């Protein structure tokens, strides 16, 4: 409408020109709005992707940090065993070859400690890089997260429904479909798409694009549903893995208790106790890693059923 005369400005333009004006007035602002929304939502997805990366790096950092402790414990046992073997060799109870084997075990354990420290250092630099901290910064202690919530609060079907409603790729494709349908509606203004040559071509191209997007949308929905089903099952499996790790730890502790009684009665050597204690530390580590795996999979599933990213 003319702001000065209140006349319909279309009166001064033919049908094709009117259609172009509608595109400029109605479609272009919607396209610009869509571009802005994509930018905003992409920021959210990027933040979630960085959170996923941080989860994985923390798991690696925790693993390499505690691997040093386990490697040092193994070295301590190897050194204890080497001292005992040295005494036995001095007393003529074992051969030089058997003593050499014990000393080689010490060397292998020392190398394992060096490797564990190198792995921790490399992982820490990666973590520091993501956290924007000095690369040479090192934590004094890396503790274990704690949680007692090992149940998924939603069903698998609810998770799938949430992902199909919220994922960026689904939203983006659906918005593109809406925009194309809106543009085609404007092309149909006073049947311009039937007689105006350029609009005829534009309309056909839009129809082709619309058909392709609908196929893309169907494939995206199929892929995301498959992805969430698999992730949901993997999360349930991680719960089972955690419980199994706890069970193995409990069994090993019972075995140590029984064996310690035998040791106190002089029925088993000290080296057996040391090996069982190391095995318990390794199983405690397995429980902690399983817990971190559960927590990471929980967080990543929740992000995957929101705006994304997926897996």
Rg (CA only): 33 Å
Q: How large is the share of residues in beta strands?
A: under 5%
Q: Give the proportion of residues in helices.
A: over 70%
CATH H-level superfamily title: Outer membrane efflux proteins (OEP)
Structural class: mainly alpha
Note poorly predicted spans. Answer: none
The counted number of beta strands is: 0
Which H/E pattern describes the elements? HHHHHHH
> What count of domains describes the coordinates?
1
CATH architecture, by name, is Up-down Bundle
CATH topology: Outer membrane efflux proteins (OEP)
Overview in brief:
80% of the residues lie in helices and 0% in strands. The protein has helices spanning 15-90, 96-131, 156-166, 168-187, 192-195, 197-264, 270-304. The two termini are 51 Å apart.
What does this structure look like?
This protein is mainly α and 311 residues long. It has one domain: Outer membrane efflux proteins (OEP), CATH 1.20.1600. It is built from 7 helices and no strands. The protein has helices spanning 15-90, 96-131, 156-166, 168-187, 192-195, 197-264, 270-304. Helix 3 packs antiparallel against helix 6 (197-264) and helix 6 packs antiparallel against helix 7. The mean pLDDT is 92.
Q: Which labels suit this protein?
A:
about 300 residues; mainly alpha; Outer membrane efflux proteins (OEP); 7 helices; about 80% helix
Layout of strands and helices, then pairs:
Layout: H1 15-90, H2 96-131, H3 156-166, H4 168-187, H5 192-195, H6 197-264, H7 270-304
Helix pairs in contact: 1-2, 1-4, 1-7, 3-6, 4-6, 6-7
